[in-house]
Design brief:
Layout (H helix, E strand, L loop, with lengths): L1 H25 L2 E7 L23 E5 L6 E3 L15 E5 L13 E5 L5 E12 L6 E7 L6 E2 L4 E2 L4 E9 L13 E6 L21 E12 L5 H28 L1
Antiparallel strand pairs: 1-12, 2-5, 3-4, 4-12, 5-11, 6-10, 6-12, 7-8, 7-9, 7-11
This protein binds calcium ion (2 copies).
Length: about 250
């Protein structure tokens, strides 16, 4: 009897350990989507690039009347992109007038987080001398209504600010969501009613560039795995019991 109980406990413990291992395995952090904006086949021309992500899927667009093409990410200290010789960044210019349209102009990214949680966003941003010195990160769970999140990125003239990280792990509404959207928009100087130029003077033709826009997330563990594992554990238990029964029979004969 003691032997049976010990076996039973051992089998259940093994099954539980296996279940935990599988759950942990399915929750590995991964890059969901990334834009490096580089031409997939290097063409030695940073002014040509792509809006298609190099990892995963998603869409990016300029918003609030901004325009632009692609520009090099290999000046101003360089972005964090390891590409050499053909490193493109998403260029944006034609920003609002000095005292107009606070937090409306910049870039917007849409990435489905279906099946994902613990969403973290990273990006590199370059500030020209007359661009807005302050950029605001915002997220949306419905693709329409945006919420300011985190500290503003504060620019330095003609310089890359790399690996700006916004951890949305505490924002449950952006988990498992096909409408997850984030944007980076120009913001009035703190306490002021207009934009501050990165180098002092603001102008609508100042430019921001973006590179290595990255969404990391963890896969949500799949509950469907659990019944299967419980079944496996019971199967092992039955097999062990029948082996013990056979063994008992053999001893009696
Ligand atoms: Ca290129
Ligand atoms: Ca790049």
């Amino acid at each position: 009897m003691t032997l049976h109980l010990t076996n039973k406990v051992a089998v259940i413990a093994a099954g539980a350990a296996l279940g935990i291992a599988v759950l942990q395995g399915s929750a590995q952090a991964a890059t969901l989507t990334q834009w490096n904006f580089n031409t997939p086949v290097p063409d030695a021309n940073p002014a040509t690039g792509t809006l298609i992500p190099n990892i995963g899927t998603g869409t990016v667009m300029r918003i609030g009347g901004t325009t632009g093409t692609f520009a090099t990410a290999e000046d101003g200290g360089m972005s964090s992109d390891p590409r050499v010789g053909d490193d493109s960044a998403l260029d944006t210019t034609t920003y609002p007038a000095a005292t107009a349209l606070n937090k409306t102009a910049g870039v917007e990214f849409k990435v489905s987080t279906v099946g994902q949680q613990n969403v973290r966003v990273n990006f590199d941003q370059y500030f020209s001398a007359t661009s807005s010195k302050f950029s605001q990160f915002q997220y949306s769970s419905d693709g329409t209504n945006f919420v300011d999140f985190g500290s503003q990125v504060v620019g330095s003239v003609n310089t890359w600010s790399n690996n700006n990280m916004f951890n949305l792990s505490s924002i449950l509404g952006v988990n498992d969501n096909a409408n997850f959207t984030f944007r980076i928009v120009s913001a009035f100087a703190p306490g002021a009613s207009g934009y501050a130029g990165t180098g002092g003077t603001y102008a609508t033709d100042g430019s921001w560039r973006f590179d290595m826009a990255t969404v990391n997330a963890d896969a949500i563990p799949t509950p469907a795995l659990l019944p299967g594992l419980v079944g496996m554990g019971l199967g092992l238990l039955r097999k062990r019991k029948s082996e013990v029964a056979e063994l008992s029979g053999a001893e009696q004969s």
